[in-house]
Automatic annotation (TrEMBL):
Sorted UniProt keywords: Oxidoreductase
Extent of the signal sequence: none
InterPro entries for the chain: NAD(P)-bd_dom_sf, Sc_DH/Rdtase_CS, SDR_fam
Protein name: Uncharacterized protein
One MF annotation (Gene Ontology) recorded for this entry: oxidoreductase activity
Domain of life: Eukaryota
Family: Belongs to the short-chain dehydrogenases/reductases (SDR) family.
Length: 158
């Protein structure tokens, strides 16, 4: 890319790169690290005409997420939709692909150093996913591992 003086570097991080308290320290730290790397590369690579950006999705009900949470896709979609600020839409993997396509395209030629929140406004307000998840699923069992929280529940209502 540097010899051609053009190109796009696109990272995928998470809403956890800007919202804290919903995931483990290690997960949050890793997402902040990706966002920080993106910003540093933005400064370094701009001189070569290389754009650097990141996509930060909120929750998307992929097979890996439904499996790790132990719930079906319909239930997870309901939780995602209910906890979203932007009502009437449920994000899916193709939505994230469209965001990536935009950021990689010439239409985004001036977009550089952006951590794009592909979250329907979730990070603009007090995050509600955890509260809705607990209400919809009955919370945690004492001593059980919660893949959403990435920790062992100390008591029934985390």
């Amino acid at each position: 890319m540097t010899p051609r003086k053009s190109g796009v570097i696109l990272f995928t991080t998470s809403h956890a790169s800007v919202v804290c308290g919903e995931t483990s320290h290690a997960y949050t730290m890793s997402k902040h690290a990706i966002a920080g790397l993106m910003k540093n590369l933005c400064v370094e690579m701009g001189q070569y005409g290389i754009r650097v950006n990141a996509i930060s999705p909120y929750a998307v009900s992929t097979p890996i997420l439904t499996h790790s949470l132990g719930i079906d896709k319909a239930t997870l979609d309901e939780v995602i939709t209910e906890s979203a600020v932007l009502k009437g839409v449920t994000p899916d993997a193709m939505d994230m692909a469209h965001v990536a396509l935009y950021l990689a395209s010439d239409e985004a030629k001036l977009v550089h150093g952006l951590n794009l929140m592909a979250d329907g406004g979730y990070t603009v307000t007090n995050p509600a996913f955890s509260l809705v998840f607990k209400r919809s699923t009955g919370g945690h069992n004492k001593g059980s591992y919660c893949p959403l929280c990435l920790r062992v529940a100390d008591f029934i209502d985390i």
